[in-house]
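Exam prep: given the inputs below (a chain plus zinc ion), describe the expected output before reading on.
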Amino acid sequence: MRRYFHGTLILPDRLLPDHTLLTEDGLILDILPAPPSGVDLIHGHYWSPGWIDIHVHGAAGADYMDGSPAAVRTANRALLRHGATTVFPTTTTGSTAELAALLDAVGQVRRHWSPADGARIPGIHYYGPYFAEDKVGCHSPAGRRDPLPAEYEAFLATGLIRIATCAAELPGAEDFYYAAQSAGCLLTCGHSNATWAEMARAFSAGMRHVDHFWCAMSSVASLRARYGTPMQASMEQFVLAHPDMSTEVIADGCHLSPELLSFAWRMIGPDRLCLVTDANRALDMPPGEYIFGHHLTGAPFTSDGRVGFVPGHGLASSVQGLDHMVRTMHAATAAPLSGIIRMASLTPARLTGLDGSFGSLAPGKRADLLHLTSSLHVAAVYLDGLPAA
Ligand SMILES: [Zn+2]
Ligand SMILES: [Zn+2]
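Solution:
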């Protein structure tokens, strides 16, 4: 069945006002300057491609580390309502058994997925547990460890992992990167205090991305505390200096100031920068006390409804959806709307190999669409051209 979506289409490089997107059987068929007469138009202010979140831990009371299909569906339904049509459920620190339960739960939902399950799942972001000891942040330190080949080889063999994080300075990090690269993953360095030299070795092993820029990563100051003088370049300089490196920002307005978001836009740009939520289970939940990670063994934090934090220690990831990140980035920077949306759609799609079918409004791609209001709120979500939220 053909459907006609009319309004301002958000393309990766420009806006197309007063155009019509034609879909058929779940795919985008064409972009028309004028719709044929006599057809029913579905009107919207803006039409955006569905967004892709490569770094997200949960929502609506559920953390993926809870390790049940019910938790995966609860989180993915909530994330879909905020505009994420595709998500990469993200692990944190925990036991091997807890991580295995997450892989199993995500695998089950993925195998039998329908739009009623919420956002699509192309694969998992294997994020924890290989964090640096001094950069564990809000995650449970008991579940942190150096890379264990017997553990990650079994997990990579499932074929479910598409993004793989490891702190570059850990013993065994390069072997982990080689193994994850063979499994087709985007390789990323996060929760790390790596030096330039450690980043360069990781880069040779295929590492190309850094998790949540400026958060839980090395800086000139953190390396001075580790090594003294002469001061050394850090993960920040390494990303800025290498056009092949990409990264992501938590644009919730609480983690990074408007000038840092604007700096990231100007210095890194929409083809190397993703918008992520890094949201935890407190998204769409009232302010209160919550657990980051597995509900029994994870780390306690507080949500005030704006952000997660550990009193006296610092932030504990976000409690906002991608729609909020898009609005914050739009307000904080001089970036055109097409560039803002690209950071939430085509750029994460390209980095994870999904851009052949997802990430932009282009003929041949899946009709995952968002109707956005003039104030960039999500009015409706379509999966395969059909209303889903
Ligand atoms: Zn993190
Ligand atoms: Zn995270």
